[in-house]
Amino acid sequence: MVDIAAVKEFIQHPVYVCFIERLQKEGKLSMSEHLPSLAMLNSSARVINKSKVSIKELLNLLSAEKESLSRYVLAYVDKVSKNDDLEEEYPEGEEQDPSENPDDGVLFPYDRDFAIFPVVLFYIIKNQPNEVLPFLMALRRPHAKANAKKELLFYKEVLEV
What we know:
Layout: H1 4-11, H2 14-27, H3 38-51, H4 55-64, H5 66-82, H6 116-127, H7 132-138, H8 144-159
């Protein structure tokens, strides 16, 4: 069972730090210098626990699959940021006030644990593809069945498997 202290130790491990630095360089991502909040660390611990993947297995994956994993995580971040469509919040016929345009704001940096979910998902898809649906269901993700199929297709698309 992974707890907050184990996640804190994991995101400070040299292998994970090196991976995050690689993502920063390749993806031009802004990263917070501070440790994530306890709520974020707890959420990351929950993801790892529901995946039934050990931290040791994740560290081995980070060491062995640097290039393909960084390509996958950067593509995942790009996909998630493009799907963050704020226009869907408004009923048909209504429009967003131009003064509230989200493009005018300052982007906050990513927390250091942001890559845990896509890394865990990569591990599951690579090693146990039949466990993607149970993993998403354990996390109580909406539309888990459809999203499991989408995640498998996304993995194949990004890595051209």
